[in-house]
Amino acid sequence: MKSVDTGVLARSVCFSFTPSDTARQLYFYPTWCGHYFCTGRYFMRREYFPPLLVAYIREGTLHVEYEGETFDAKKGDVVLLDCARPHYYQAMEGLEFVYIHFDGSNSHEICGHILKLFGPLIRNQNNALVGNLIYNMVKFYEQDGVENMFDSSMRIYKLLQLLSERELHNQKEDTSIEKTIRYIRSHVGDKITLEELADIANLSTYYFSHRFKEETGLSPIDYVINTRLDQAKILLARTSMTVEEIAYEVGYQSSNSLINLFNQKLGFSPREYRKLAK
């Protein structure tokens, strides 16, 4: 379909999608996608538009104003906007970009997390992959392609995965976090402190705690607790060890501590879990 937006050249294409009730309830789903060639007359100003937007700049510059930030996205950049918030963007002469509007499931919450990590202007090692994914999607529909709800959702899931991966210059820090995770798993029966983990990561305790939760969704100590719980579940299901023995094996000095953990996290005792798992 040809776009009729002011400033969008005739060779541009766009496609609109109306999701089914099932897609709205269960999946990620596209609402628009397109490949635009623009003059300086193209702009968009909205106070509210329900879907999210990911745009990849193939040539030229896109000026963006969003959430108090003003920036120019250039060739190779990715722009991520939650269009439910006020936003404005305008093409500079010669702009070419591909884009997708999408919604569904917990997409706004996921994109909110990505925006918190990177902001609306994303420059990382996956940008070209993001651009190719959107470009191929537009080509797919330009060639009259048909796909089911699950496949469409998987495209968007892959897009979100690419957007959420960290930049190359942060990989050293990521490796430090992974090193502490491996240490926790291999020392699950030992006493593990926050200071010890921060030392392993070679970071301050404050920054380590912040980075660890950003990467895993858990504080370092909560991750230790969950790892102990996971190991205890395996031992309950796969061995004949007593609850007391398992408690000691995963770092607790009494079975009461393990029993309280199971009741708090799972809602039943270790012995009840053993009956369910076998």
UniProtKB/TrEMBL annotation:
InterPro entries: AraC-bd, Homeodomain-like_sf, HTH-like, HTH_AraC, HTH_AraC-typ_CS, RmlC-like_jellyroll. Pfam families: AraC_binding, HTH_18. It comes from the Bacteria. SUPFAM superfamilies: Homeodomain-like (SSF46689), Regulatory protein AraC (SSF51215). Coiled coil: none annotated. Residues 178-276 form the HTH araC/xylS-type domain. The keyword Transport does not apply. Gene3D superfamilies: Homeodomain-like, Jelly Rolls. SMART domains: HTH_ARAC. Keywords: DNA-binding, Transcription, Transcription regulation. This is AraC family transcriptional regulator. It comes from Blautia parvula.
